[in-house]
Design brief:
- Helix 3 runs antiparallel to helix 4.
- The protein has about 200 residues and is an alpha/beta fold.
- The protein has a 5-stranded mixed β-sheet with strand order 2-1-3-4-5, with helices on both faces.
- Strand 3, helix 3 and strand 4 form a beta-alpha-beta unit.
- Helix content is about 50%, strand content about 10%.
- It has 7 helices and 5 strands; from the N terminus they run E-H-E-H-E-H-E-E-H-H-H-H.
- The chain starts with a strand and ends with a helix.
Length: about 200
């Protein structure tokens, strides 16, 4: 059985030839006997109709989609879904990529596809690391849990300690005594290095 899958996001519905009607027409032209569709953004993991269809597919079936981004958010995720389907004996026909199946040609196309998926993942990691390095050089904290309070809030609370006890400053600012103690220690260390 040949199944088609179409998805539109609510924001992009009807643009760039991605409307449900356009996709369904292409899927029928490619031989889809039954078409399933979802209306969800690609960033959402939950695509209920696609999930049902994936469970339904079995050996000898074919899944047809117009583009990879119709069922996967990234090439890596798409590769995982395609590999699972191929292992179950399901052919995957991505119209702008080709027929992926257990034939030598299908395996070659899939291998090239996975190479691009790995390349995409590596490029994302590389860009992320470069961005973090630039942020670190600018003195921006990028690793670990984000600070709950700004430097200005901490400085204000430390100034209040000149007039009020720790417990009172905690009540007024919401900054815990332990955080205030650490910040005060850090401030003294910085002052002693300067002086």
């Amino acid at each position: 059985m040949k199944y088609g899958y179409a998805r539109v996001s609510t924001q992009k519905q009807g643009t760039d030839g991605n409307s449900l009607e356009d996709q369904e027409k292409k899927l029928r032209e490619a031989g889809a006997e039954e078409i399933v569709s979802d209306t969800f953004t690609g960033t959402k993991i939950d695509r209920p109709e696609f999930s049902k269809l994936i469970k339904k597919l079995g050996a000898g079936d074919e899944l047809i989609v117009t583009k990879l981004d119709r069922f996967a958010r990234t090439a890596v995720e798409g590769g995982q879904i395609v590999r699972d389907l191929l292992d179950r004996g399901v052919s995957v026909n991505i119209l702008n990529l080709g027929l992926l199946n257990n034939t030598p040609t299908g395996k070659l196309i899939f291998s090239v596809f996975l190479s691009f998926a790995e390349f995409e993942r590596d490029m994302i990691v590389e860009r992320t690391q470069a961005g973090k390095q630039i942020a670190r050089e600018r003195g921006v904290r990028v690793d670990g849990r984000p600070e709950k309070f700004s430097k200005k809030q901490i400085e204000h609370a430390l100034d209040l300690l000149d007039e009020y006890p720790y417990s009172e400053v905690e009540r007024m600012t919401g900054i815990s005594v332990s955080t205030l103690v650490r910040a005060k220690r850090k401030r003294k260390a910085a002052e002693s290095q300067e002086g």
